[in-house]
Write a structure and sequence with these properties.
about 55% helix
Length: about 180
Amino acid sequence: MVQLLDKSFCGIAFLVQLFHKFEHLTLKEQEKMVTDRALWMILYGLKVHLRDLGAVYLSFDVSDVYRPESLVWFYSNPRATIEECEFGASFALLGYFNYEPLKKFWSRPEHGREINDEVRKQPKLPSLVELSRNVAKKYILNKYRIRTSKRLHFVLDALQIDWLTKDTILLKRRLY
């Protein structure tokens, strides 16, 4: 809200304060908190740059595995697809996409046994929910000529669909 009034406000300051406030949480819980807040900032038209998130994680020495930068990239670019994403950026994408190149990247031995086990738990094929979500989102983006996340949220709120479907389309709900 501050950035709406004062364009010089830096989103990174808010995210750094957020990390200090929730440093008692696990890394996964911190990832969720930062991702949720970054989404909230994007929804209100605030600028959240990946370099800002990178600086936040660097200042708190967060492992690359738990950095949700790619997820925030999807939030801020409604037309983004998994095929365009850089796979090394975030392990968090495996909760939303069953994409073979992404699974191959994270199943490398250097990522460790715990991560490899998580990758092996993924189904062989994408779920029907994932496939439906991708097609529905593409249709809505094209039909309503959506270019921004704020507009996507506005359109989804105007459509008479349940909150579970909206959350799935917006990548707020993990599928795997």
